[in-house]
Write a structure and sequence with these properties.
- Helix content is 60%, strand content 0%.
- It has 185 residues and is mainly α.
- It has one domain.
- The longest helix is centred in the middle third of the chain and has 18 residues.
- The radius of gyration is 20 Å and the shape is globular.
């Protein structure tokens, strides 16, 4: 029969032994929660051709409209209006494999990882408001984590900061294990 930690502490040290109490916010504060942490990195590492490639991911369908929405997202750091075609191209890029040369849609190497990270970040932002349209959130977070780690510590740290903000804003959402991976990448 297992004895609880509190019962063992009481029997060893009496009632004077107590464990510190922390809130989730206190524990996550050193990770510097910031919803926009990735925005300046995207702005510094993206070019128009990357946005155009994402916009055209669904065989070019509605590419001009998707490009306009993606441009707005890149400039403002906020997710564009919920648009079916935009979600579709983001989902296609989410599943890209930047380390597999020639994988399409999506870019190769670091360029492809930036594109996938951007798409996954946008998808994760859609998730809380459109649970009915978004499945595979953990898969998206795994892809986001993989690309952030591949792009280096500053990117992984910014992605962790974004993830912590998300977790504090909506504790019911999955993803804590991905934040931990990013923070210590």
């Amino acid at each position: 029969m297992s004895t609880s930690w509190k019962a063992r502490a009481s029997s060893v040290g009496g009632d004077s032994c107590s464990r510190p109490e922390f809130t989730t916010q206190q524990l996550l504060a050193p990770l510097h929660p910031n919803e926009s942490a990735l925005t300046p990195l995207f702005q510094a590492n993206f070019d128009e051709s990357m946005l155009r490639e994402i916009a055209a991911a669904d065989y070019g369908w509605m590419a001009a409209e998707c490009f306009e929405l993606l441009q707005s997202m890149l400039k403002s750091g906020s997710v564009a209006a919920d648009d079916f075609n935009l979600r579709e191209v983001l989902e296609l890029i989410r599943w890209s494999e930047p380390d597999a040369p020639g994988w399409r849609p999506g870019g190769d190497g670091p360029r492809g990882h930036w594109m996938r990270l951007f798409a996954c970040t946008a998808m994760v932002r859609f998730a809380p408001t459109r649970r009915d349209l978004f499945d595979g959130e953990c898969s998206t977070l795994a892809q986001l984590t993989s690309s952030a780690i591949e792009l280096g510590r500053p990117v992984a740290t910014a992605a962790a900061s974004r993830g912590v903000h998300r977790k504090l804003a909506r504790a019911d959402l999955p993803g804590s294990r991905f934040v931990v991976l990013l923070r210590f990448a």
